[in-house]
Design brief:
The complex is a heterodimer. By secondary structure, chain A is an alpha+beta fold. Chain A is built from six helices and 18 strands. Chain B has seven helices and 18 strands. Chain B is globular. Chain B is α/β, with parallel strands linked by helices. Classes of the chains: A alpha+beta, B alpha/beta. At the A-B interface, β8 of A face β11 of B.
Chain lengths: 369, 327
C-alpha cells in the first residue's frame, strides 16, 4: 500500500515535456534565458524556424550563452571568449586554435513546437517521445479561440496543481467574479488513471456569478435567469490541467450533454517548475462561441488575468507561510482528493526516475547532468 | 545526458579478469557506489606504477543495469606506460580506487544517422554506444578495424547484436579500412564517432577536413596513448633553467619534467586542451605528435608539442633530444 506523502515541496519529474515558453517568445531577435525544471536554458530559433534549447552555460567557463549572439543559420556564439556551437550543442569553432577540443559541447535538449508553446524535455533525451505531450488541442483547434498569459509564481509547482485541482477556493479567493457558495455545497466526483486525474462538479439551477453572466450575455444578449454550471478538471501528468467550464440555461440539458443553450470555455493550464520555489504558470482561456470577436478574446484574457492575480497572491502568501513555519505539516481534507491523486502520480514518476519526493538541496543538486 | 567532468572517487572490487585476446583483457569490477552508466563513459583508475601514484582512463565496455558491475578492457601495447601491467595483474578480490563514470565523449541524440569507427581497443568505447543506438532505433553503422581477427575483442558479440550494421576490416584478411572511401560514403547529417589509434583518428580527420565537412559532426575519443612510432627513451632539456630529464618509454614527457622539478601547467593530460604546450628550440630526431589539439599544419611545423602525450623519436642510429621552452 502506498501512502502519499503530502510533501510541502515536491520535486519534479525530469523525464517529461514542460512548456518553456509561448511560441512567440522564442525567436532570432533575442535569445531567451529561462530555467525549466531546474535547468537554465538558452532558447532561440534557427533561420528555418526550428526552436533550439541549449544549456545556458558555455562548455568553457560556463558564461551564459543566452547573452551571446546568433551566427549564421543555426549557431550561437558565447559572449565571453567566442566559442560557437551549433543547434545540437556541438562546438563549431574555438578561439585562437585550429582544432576543436573533442569533448567540447553543451547539452542540447529535445524541443517540440505544439499548441502555441515551445515544449522542452530536460530528462533522458532517449525517452523524449513527442506523443507524450499532453493534449491541449483547444489551443490550436479551429473550433476554439482565445488567448492567455504567463504567471511567474513564487511557489512550488505542486501548490499550483493543488489550487487548480480543487476549485472550492473560488468561493473565497474569487468572490467577486466566479466564486459562489454552491461550489462548496455541491458534490464532486474524482476519478483517475495511471497518468490522469479528473474531478467533475455540477451545480444545478443556480444564479450565474458575474463572470459567467457576462459570458452568457455575449452569446445570448439580454440573458437573465438561472443556470446549470459545470467544472470538469482534467489533469494530465506531470503538470497540465485543462478545465472544461461553463454554464447553460437551467434545465436545458447540459448535464446530459446538450450544451447548445450555454457557453463553454476551457481553462488551459500548464505549469513548468522553475526551481523548488518558483514556477512558470502558462494559461489560456479558450472558448467555442463568438469565435470572430477579438473584443471578447481580449476581455476574457484580461478578466481571467485579474482572477488569476488573486490566485497568485494566495500562492505566494502560502509559500511564504510554508517557509516561515518549517516545523508545521500539511493536513488533507476530502476536497483534496484530486490534488492527492496528482501527488500520487508524481511520486510514482519520481520513483521511476530513482528519485525522492523532496527536491535536493540547492547546491550540488545536479552536478551530474 | 550525463556530461560529467566532476570527479567522484569510490572503491571497487575486482570480480573477474580474463584475456579476450593476447593483448586485451576484460576486467569486471563491482563498484561501491553504483550509478547510471551512459554510453561512451570512462572511469579513471588510481594505480601505483613503479612506486609512483598515477591514474589511467579506461572506457566502460558494458555494465549491469544498476551500474554495480562494470567491465573495462585493458590493452597492453608494446608502448604501454606500465598501467596495463598493473591492471593485468589484478585478480578477483583485489580492491582498487576509481572514479564514478566520467564522460568526455557523450553520444548525442538527434543526428539523422551515426557511424561509429573503432580501431583496435577503441572498440571498448563503442560497444555501449552501439547498443544504445540500437536500443533507441537509430540509423547507425559500426566499422571495426583491426590487424587480425584473433586480436579483435568482442567480434562475436557485436556480430550477434548488430548483424548487417557491423562491418569488420581486418588487415590480415586484406579488408583494411579505406579511409577516403569511408569518408566519401558518409552522407551529410551523419555524426561520426571515432575511437582508436592516433593514426586512424588523424587520417579520418584529414580526409574529413579536406572535404570541408562540418567539424562538429566528427567526434573523437582519445586517451593519448598511441602514437605513430613505438615509444623510445629520449632526453628533454630546458636550457633556460638547466633542467634535463630522461624520458623513459613508459613515462610521458610531462611526467619526466615534473619529476625533474619543472613547474608544469596542464589540465587534460590526454592531448586535448593544449595547456601543457612546450615550444621546441632544438630537435635531434622527430616529433611523434599524439595529441588532437594541433592541426596538421601546426604538427608539420615541428615547433610546439603537447608534452602530456607527444614524444620524440631518434634519428637513424642516433639518440633523440629535444630542447624546449615551457610556458
Ligand atoms: S566562457 Fe564561453 S568561450 Fe569562454
Ligand atoms: S594537458 Fe591537455 S594537452 Fe596536455
Ligand atoms: Fe483560483
Amino acid at each position: 500500500m502506498q501512502q502519499t506523502v503530502t510533501a510541502k515541496l515536491l520535486d519534479h519529474p525530469r523525464n517529461a515535456w514542460y512548456v518553456a515558453a509561448w511560441d512567440h517568445e522564442v525567436g532570432r531577435k533575442k535569445i531567451l534565458a529561462r530555467t525549466v525544471a531546474g535547468r537554465p536554458l538558452a532558447l532561440y530559433r534557427t533561420e528555418d524556424g526550428r526552436a533550439v534549447a541549449l544549456a545556458d552555460a558555455c562548455w568553457h567557463r560556463l558564461a551564459p550563452l543566452s547573452q551571446g549572439t546568433l551566427m549564421g543559420p543555426e549557431d550561437i556564439r558565447c559572449p565571453y571568449h567566442g566559442i560557437t556551437y551549433d543547434a545540437r550543442g556541438r562546438c563549431t569553432s574555438m578561439p585562437a586554435q585550429e582544432t576543436i577540443n573533442p569533448s567540447a559541447l553543451v547539452p542540447s535538449f529535445p524541443v517540440v513546437d505544439r499548441y502555441r508553446y515551445v515544449w522542452v524535455w530536460v530528462g533522458d533525451p532517449a525517452l523524449a517521445d513527442p506523443d507524450l505531450i499532453p493534449d491541449m488541442h483547444q489551443m490550436t483547434d479551429a473550433a476554439w479561440t482565445g488567448d492567455g498569459l504567463t504567471i511567474h509564481a513564487p511557489c512550488n509547482y505542486q501548490l499550483i496543481l493543488d489550487n487548480l485541482m480543487d476549485l472550492t477556493h473560488e468561493e473565497f479567493v474569487h468572490s467577486s467574479s466566479i466564486g459562489q457558495k454552491e461550489l462548496s455545497e455541491s458534490e464532486f466526483v474524482t476519478s483517475h488513471t495511471d497518468t490522469t486525474v479528473t474531478v467533475e462538479r455540477w451545480m444545478h439551477d443556480i444564479e450565474a456569478p458575474p463572470f459567467w453572466l457576462k459570458n452568457m450575455r455575449d452569446k445570448f444578449p439580454g440573458f437573465s435567469g438561472r443556470v446549470d454550471r459545470w467544472q470538469i478538471i482534467h489533469f494530465e501528468a506531470p503538470s497540465t490541467i485543462c478545465i472544461d467550464v461553463g454554464v447553460a440555461k437551467a434545465g436545458t440539458g447540459a448535464p446530459e450533454g446538450d450544451r447548445s443553450q450555454g457557453v463553454n470555455g476551457y481553462v488551459m493550464n500548464t505549469i513548468t517548475p522553475e526551481t523548488a520555489r518558483s514556477s512558470h504558470y502558462f494559461w489560456s482561456f479558450q472558448r467555442n462561441y463568438r469565435l470572430d470577436s477579438q473584443l471578447i478574446t481580449t476581455q476574457l484574457r484580461d478578466g481571467v488575468h485579474g482572477v488569476f492575480g488573486e490566485d497568485e497572491a494566495m500562492l505566494s502568501a502560502q509559500q511564504a507561510a510554508i517557509d516561515a513555519n518549517p516545523d508545521y505539516e500539511f493536513y488533507s481534507l476530502n476536497i483534496d482528493a484530486g490534488g492527492m491523486w496528482v501527488r500520487r502520480i508524481l511520486e510514482r514518476m519520481l520513483l521511476a526516475e530513482g528519485r525522492d519526493h523532496a527536491p535536493a538541496p540547492r547546491r550540488g543538486a545536479q552536478l551530474v547532468r | 545526458m550525463a556530461v560529467s567532468r566532476t570527479e567522484v572517487w569510490q572503491g571497487g572490487t575486482v570480480v573477474a579478469s580474463r584475456a579476450l585476446t593476447p593483448e586485451i583483457r576484460r576486467i569486471e569490477i563491482e563498484v561501491d557506489d553504483p550509478g547510471p552508466v551512459d554510453p561512451g563513459v570512462h572511469v579513471d583508475v588510481r594505480l601505483t606504477i613503479a612506486g609512483e601514484r598515477d591514474r589511467r582512463s579506461y572506457s566502460i565496455v558494458d555494465a549491469t543495469d544498476d551500474g554495480r558491475r562494470i567491465a573495462l578492457s585493458v590493452y597492453t601495447s608494446p608502448a604501454s606506460r606500465g598501467g596495463a601491467a598493473v591492471m593485468n595483474a589484478l585478480a578477483p578480490g583485489d580492491r582498487l580506487e576509481l572514479t564514478r563514470p566520467l564522460n568526455d565523449f557523450p553520444l548525442r541524440p538527434g543526428a539523422d544517422r551515426y557511424v561509429l569507427i573503432a580501431g583496435g581497443v577503441g572498440i571498448t568505447a563503442m560497444v555501449g554506444m552501439a547498443a544504445s543506438l540500437r536500443a533507441r532505433g537509430a540509423d547507425y553503422r559500426v566499422l571495426y578495424a583491426g590487424r587480425s581477427r584473433p586480436l579483435m575483442a568482442y567480434v562475436d558479440d557485436l556480430q550477434r547484436i548488430h548483424g548487417e550494421r557491423l562491418s569488420l576490416h581486418v588487415r590480415d584478411e586484406g579488408t583494411s579500412l579505406s579511409i577516403p572511401a569511408v569518408v566519401d560514403g558518409i552522407p551529410p547529417g551523419t555524426e561520426v564517432y571515432v575511437c582508436g589509434p592516433i593514426r586512424l583518428m588523424d587520417a579520418i580527420r584529414r580526409e574529413w577536413m579536406r572535404r570541408g565537412r562540418p567539424v562538429a559532426d566528427l567526434r573523437m575519443e582519445t586517451f593519448g596513448n598511441s602514437g605513430w612510432f613505438d615509444a623510445q627513451e629520449f632526453t628533454v632539456r630546458i636550457p633556460a633553467t638547466g633542467i634535463e630529464a630522461r624520458v623513459r618509454p613508459n613515462q610521458s614527457m610531462l611526467e619526466a619534467l615534473e619529476a625533474a622539478g619543472a613547474d608544469m601547467m596542464w589540465d587534460c593530460r590526454k592531448g586535448e586542451c593544449g595547456l601543457c604546450e612546450v615550444r621546441v628550440l632544438g630537435l635531434e630526431g622527430d616529433i611523434d605528435h599524439r595529441d588532437v589539439f594541433y592541426s596538421e599544419r601546426q604538427k608539420d611545423a615541428r615547433s610546439k608539442m603537447c608534452c602530456c602525450v607527444s614524444r620524440v623519436v631518434a634519428p637513424a642510429g642516433g639518440s633523440a633530444v629535444v630542447e624546449i621552452v615551457t610556458s
